[in-house]
Amino acid sequence: MLTRRSGSLVTVRLPGCRTLETASAALATAIRAGRGGASGPEPLRRYEVEIAQIDPLAWVSAQPRGERVYFRNREGSLAIGGVGRCLARASLADDAVAACLASESSDFPETGQPGEPFFFVVNWFDPATAGRAPQTWSGFAPSRVVLPRIEVRRARECLLAVHVCDDDALALAALERLSGACAVGSLPHGFRLREDGDPARWADSIDAALAAIERGSFEKVVLARTREYQADEPIDPCAILAALRLEEPAAFHVLVEQSPMRAFIAASPERLYKRKGRLIHSEAVAGTCTRGRDGEADDRLAARLLASEKNRREHECVVRRVEGALTPLARHLARDSEPRVMRLRHVQHLLTGIVGHLREDARDEVTLAELHPTPAVCGWPLAESRTFIRDGEEVARGLYAGVVGVVSASRSDFTVAIRSAVIREQSLLAFAGAGIVRGSEADAEWLETSRKLESFEGIARRASQASWGPHGPEECVPMHPRPVVANP
To answer: For residue 468, what are the domain limits?
Structure first.
């Protein structure tokens, strides 16, 4: 048994590699022996043990609904599933959270050494809209930082961990409630399109945005629309996310569940930023075209995207904003000399990477506040475009185009939650947006949002196939799928 103490955190690593069942029992034994008869305040304790490789999403899927979370980065090198809440706060600046994140940790621990906890972070696109559209976003807090009670993490190794920050009995009870199953259920029966929005209303909103651009109110605004699906039975969010992972393997995959029968899911291509130590990598993703029938057609479309004045103008707006936000926070800032093309299953995007070294006082809560929202999901200038969105869009965005990610003392990774949907019992409401600049056309932007929603159409097709049933979703997904990036 190995123990590491750092500030307000104690991590206990149990020896060996175990099954889920024997790992749960070993963690319970360690908790009972951990504190003994000590009294007074105690640090956060993390007990962990290596387990045989499993899919964290399949594990999460088997656990009781209500307080489940899941995050998998775009590269597939980190996947974390959590259930329950050991700590839940409104901000990373909260004293209890900050104390854990201030613990000394230079890097992700080596295999076999005690690890560090990851907090799940969730922020709405526009917290000022809290209270709007209560039927859609009831049960979701505009800002939330959660340390799960129980965690399965797959990175260099696969771990089962339990966190204790209060009564030991709560952690022991959580371990008792764990299901030993590890499989994702079926897509719901009768999953079908119910409502695809109103093209006339969309055209009116585009006209209003273009008129505001001509008046000089803003340079760009991102408008969103929704598409609603209905099922004949309650929708399992993990089954939908597993299907999205097959549709878009080279994406961030997230699940946020803050109350029973309500969940938010996303398969987003867009990274807000990742941090390793003080090294930060952000990116601008804006400008879109469709995919071709083959590689040659893809290259032609990508070349047109790179040459498009409208798309380059939209993209450069995002690059300027990200650079401007990071300049006071980071040293040695550098960007790609030219945009590249990110190829996803249904669309292609322009992408420019930006890297730098964060200053010592640039904590994650500060970096998040400076970088989000980007013009890729809001517009430019930010205040004016966000006001236009707030006043003009029919459905409050909530977590759509918000931030979901994980943060530890040594690293963090955050995605902008696009290509996403909120699930309410038997209903799924999917969101998609398009950047509007001078020269945008309503019909073209409608088609662009339709392409971005194509993954949900793919799920509807899968749901109609009787052969798509319970399975381990990773069996069809490479361990480290990557987006194809080309520069023709």
So the answer is: 192-486
Per-residue confidence (pLDDT) for residue 39, from 0 to 100: 44
DSSP-derived secondary structure letter, 128: G
CATH number, domain containing residue 428: 3.60.120.10
Structurally, how many domains does the chain consist of? 1
**pTM of this prediction?**
0.92
Decide if 468 is inside a domain: yes
Helix (H) or strand (E) holding 299: helix 295-307
Encoded amino acid at 178, one letter = L
Please tell me the total number of residues recorded for the chain in this structure.
488
- Structure tokens given for 320: 């300027």
CA dist 37 → 13, 30, 174, 175 (Å): 21, 14, 22, 22
- Kindly report, residue by residue over 407-427, the tens digit of the pLDDT: 999 999 999 999 999 999 999
| Active centre residues (catalytic) | 220, 270
Sorted by sequence, the CB contacts under 8 Å of residue 375 that are 6+ apart come out as 220, 222, 286, 317, 318, 321, 382, 385, 435
> What confidence tens digit (pLDDT) does each residue in 190-220 have?
999 999 989 999 999 999 999 999 999 999 9
**Among the listed residues 236, 259, 235, the one whose alpha carbon sits nearest the alpha carbon of residue 85:** 259
